[in-house]
TrEMBL record:
Keywords: Cell membrane, Membrane, Transmembrane, Transmembrane helix, Transport
Subcellular location(s) per record: Cell membrane
Topology term for the membrane: Multi-pass membrane protein
Protein name: Guanidinium exporter
InterPro entries per record: EmrE-like (IPR037185), Small_drug/metabolite_transptr (IPR000390), Small_multidrug_res (IPR045324)
């Protein structure tokens, strides 16, 4: 269950990166809604990370949990930037994103 909480928290981390990018692109009332989304996503992301490392019969180790949480957020932010903000897709960029994914999967595989 804690791994599910952690994955959902990582997705909310991607959400707060998306909201932050959109808040910088917009003005007026629309900008305030993106800032609100940023705050809500930030809170939920960190709350779920906290729950994953402190709740249940087998809480996750903080080092592994934090690395997986930030890895999900980083990969999600890269793909969100590519899809929504027209950021470049280069060989080396994708190479290192997939290296990051392999590292996150490896950390989960070797954790207790």
């Amino acid at each position: 269950m804690n791994w599910i909480l952690l994955i959902i928290g990582g997705l909310f981390e991607t959400g707060f990166a998306l909201c932050l990018g959109k808040a910088q692109e917009t003005t007026g009332k629309e900008s305030y809604f993106w800032w609100l989304g940023f705050g809500i996503s930030l809170f939920l992301s960190m709350f779920l990370l906290y729950k994953a490392i402190s709740v249940g019969s087998q809480p996750l180790p903080i080092g592994t949990a934090y690395a997986v949480w930030t890895g999900i957020g980083a990969v999600g932010a890269v793909f969100t930037g590519i899809l929504l903000f027209n950021e470049p897709v280069t060989f080396w960029r994708m190479f290192f994103v997939f290296t990051l994914i392999a590292s996150v999967v490896g950390l989960k595989a070797v954790s207790n």
